Amino acid sequence: MHTKTRNIFILGIMAGAAATLVACGGGGDDSPPPSQPSATVSGKAVDFYLSGSTVTFLDCESKTVATNASGDFTFPAGCTRSALRVTGGTDIGTKQPFVGVLQAQAQDYREGVIQVVSPLTTLAVQLGSAQAAPLATGLGLTGKDLATLDPMQDATALRAAVVVQQLVDHVAKTLSGLGTGGTLTPAETAAAASKAVASAVASAQGTADLTSSALVTNVVSSAVQNAQSGLPASLQSDIGAVAANVAALAAPVITSQVTSVSTALEAVDLSSSPAETLAALTESGSINVVTESAQSTTTTALVQAVTTDGLTDASNTAGLAELGDAVSTGNTAEIQQAAADLGSAVDAGAINSVANAVRLNNSLLLSNLTINGANYPITDTISATGGTLGAIQVAMTQNGDAFNGGPSQVRAGLSYTYGGNQVDVIIENVTLTFNGSQLVDAVVPANTAYSFRISGNVSAAASLTNSAADSLFSSANGGSLNLPFTVFLGKLRSAGALSQAQVDALTPKSVSTFPVTFATTTGVNGRDVKLGMLVNGGVEFAKTALVKTDAEMVTGDGLKTTVTLNP
Q: Is residue 153 part of a domain?
């Protein structure tokens, strides 16, 4: 140590002497020395871009800077290489406070290259540089450099980054609830969750399915074990049972949230600028889905509703899985039944609070479908008769105020696949009228835009405007929204985009099986319309659904079912 210090001291004297010679004209060259400007290193913080976040330069005396409105930041003077940590600020997509922790490994400075801190680089930190390639492959980003990849400039990376962050956030929220009374910090919960997600992604065969219940269950279990040392002592003694029970309880809820976000970003189109991309995602309803996920703290409250004895008892795993499933669907009757079956393992008051929090109070309720005059409950598969299918009617009522005081209008999308063709229709405005809870009218006002896309054996795309109002109301079941396939196809025929023979080929006939998707949104950030479905006598969350044409996209609550049409 003394030798090293002495050498540094001598080198300092020599450097000082050399500088004195130059200043005095030593060396016979009277020209001034060339300027040596310091390098300026730029970075970007991205979930969607993070505004007002704190960037900590861990290898540069932990100096900090704040990001601007586009997530940009500059390294402090003299700092050109450092590991990075990003906390706080606001996500400019969801407009929600950013509560996670993003990290990036130290990178060698490269002129003109912006260093990115994102959910993807956070996973890379957990695994180290040796696992960069399998991690990128697991994210569907083979061959791409995660350290410089701006998700707002790459559609696949954007979907991966937002889905990863929502998965990490929900797992971290689960750990926060579990760690009450322990020593876990927010940074430690984020690290435990990120490490579990990173390991699952890197070990996947091909691209990891982040919406897989098996993967999410594995991630939650691993995260609990990663966080073991910060959990209350009462949970540490049998961490295997605790990890299995928490995974059984929380994974269904997390899987549901992550699946919704993944669906919402399934068909991202990058616009000419990130701001325009966000505007399009807001209009489509995709941002509403991500925002709702970001705001949810359901798993925090859910794990707190189970007693310590309940979490450490390995015999409770199946019952906790049933409780988690019930909470994930929002079916309050099933939540109460599952909790009752677990007895003293569940705190009755706490689980009542969870049930009330997920209850659909202000929503539209879809109760059944009418196909060729017959009624069918809403299920994943429906077997109907009638030979030819020209329309589906969806029975609808209003529970409370589904539109939060705003106009009862939705953007609606309908999609079905038949005969090797996919038909997508988006209607910019469907105005609904209710008498109390009952639907009494559904109208597409005059001068409303319709957007069509047909792909497959038949190819067509068009944007049309109706000159007169169109009725989408049916009196079936006391008030239904009518979705007339053949009427929509007739608009394309009248416009010259399809022949009558093509319309016939696109009209479902028996015997055939075809998927149908219906999606609605208000297209207003923070004012999404919620749908519930009547399932086995109980109200459950509708599924997140997406319909896309060449010109428009609708993402929101809806239904997905597969219809088998028989003679």
A: no
pLDDT tens, residue by residue, 33-68: 433 345 689 999 999 999 999 999 999 999 999 999
Specify the pTM: 0.91
CB 528 within 8 A of CB 556: yes
Supply the DSSP symbol for 82: -
Same domain, 59 and 193: no
* Cβ-based burial of 503 (10 A; exposed 0-12, middle 13-18, buried ≥19): middle
Give the Cα separation of 408 and 436 in Å (integer): 13
Strands 409-418 and 421-435, by their bridges, are antiparallel
Whether the Cβ atoms of residue 556 and residue 285 lie closer than 8 Å to each other = yes
Boundary of a domain, candidates 337, 358, 379: 358
Examine the pLDDT at 8 and tell me if it is beyond 50: no
- Within this chain, do residues 402 and 288 fall inside the same structural domain, yes or no? no
DSSP element (H, E) containing 515:
strand 512-521
Say whether both 371 and 350 belong to one domain. Answer: no
Work out how many domains the chain is built from and give that number.
3
pLDDT in tens, 156-195: 999 999 999 999 999 999 999 999 999 999 999 999 999 9
Residue 507 contacts by C-beta under 8 Å, 6 or more apart in sequence? 388, 389, 390, 418, 485, 486, 489
Q: Are strands 512-521 and 115-117 parallel, antiparallel or unpaired?
A: unpaired
Nearest of 401, 388, 384 to residue 504 by alpha carbon: 388
Put residue 542 in one of left, alpha, beta given phi > 0 → left and psi -120 to 50 → alpha: beta
The whole-chain average pLDDT of the chain stands at 92
Torsion angle of C-alpha atoms 247, 248, 249, 253, degrees rounded to 10: 80
- Strand duo 84-87 + 101-104: pairing: antiparallel
Measuring CA to CA, which residue among 506, 344, 348, 350 is closest to residue 415? 506
Which residue range is the domain that position 192 belongs to? Answer: 158-358
Residue 23 has pLDDT above 50, yes or no: no
Residue 385 inside a domain? The answer is: yes
Residues 6+ apart with CB under 8 A from 231: 178, 179, 182, 184, 224, 239, 242
pLDDT on residue 526? 65
Same domain, 340 and 448: no
The reply to whether 26 falls in a domain is no
DSSP code of residue 244: H
Look at residue 30 in the predicted model and tell me its pLDDT. Answer: 46
Residue predicted with more confidence, 287 or 12: 287
In 3D space, the residue among 135, 285, 145, 125 whose CA is nearest the CA of residue 191 turns out to be 125
SS3 of residue 295 by DSSP? helix
